[in-house]
Structures are given as structure tokens and as C-alpha cells.
């Protein structure tokens, strides 16, 4: 089995599951109760004045 075939087999089986679990974890991380202050700061960051003008 070549390296390409081994990596392709991994990506077709376990790799897809790992990537999907990571995607879900990162999406749900946003909605944790302790992240509320960070989310609010991120939402309003584009409205802050720059002092570099």
C-alpha cells in the first residue's frame, strides 16, 4: 500500500469523522454560556473608532 492509498483510506473513514466532529465543536463553542462577553465584543468591534486616523 502506498502512502497515498493509506492517506486516502484514512480520509475516507476516520478522517471524515474527525473533521466533522471538529466542525461541530467549533460551531457549538460559539454558543457556550461563558462566551457571551467575547461574542458581544466581536459583534460590536466593527463599530469602534480607530485612533490611527
How would you portray this structure in words?
With 53 residues, the chain is mostly helical. Helices cover 68% and strands 0% of the residues. The protein is built from two helices and no strands. It has helices spanning 3-29, 36-44. The chain is elongated and about 60 Å long. The model has no long low-confidence stretch (mean pLDDT 86).
Discrete helix count: 2
Query: DSSP strand (E) fraction?
Result: under 5%
Q: Oligomeric state of the chains?
A: single chain
Task: For the record, give the distance between the C-alpha atoms at the N and C termini, rounded to a whole number.
Answer: 60 Å
Helix content: 55-70%
Give the tally of β-strands: 0
Unreliable parts = none
- Arithmetic mean pLDDT: 86
Secondary-structure class: mainly alpha
Gross morphology: elongated
Biggest sheet descriptor: none
Amino acid at each position: 500500500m502506498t502512502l497515498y492509498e493509506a492517506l486516502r483510506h484514512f480520509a475516507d473513514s476516520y478522517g471524515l469523522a474527525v473533521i466533522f466532529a471538529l466542525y461541530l465543536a467549533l460551531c457549538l463553542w460559539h454558543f457556550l454560556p461563558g462566551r457571551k462577553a467575547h461574542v458581544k465584543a466581536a459583534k460590536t468591534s466593527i463599530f469602534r473608532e480607530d485612533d490611527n486616523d
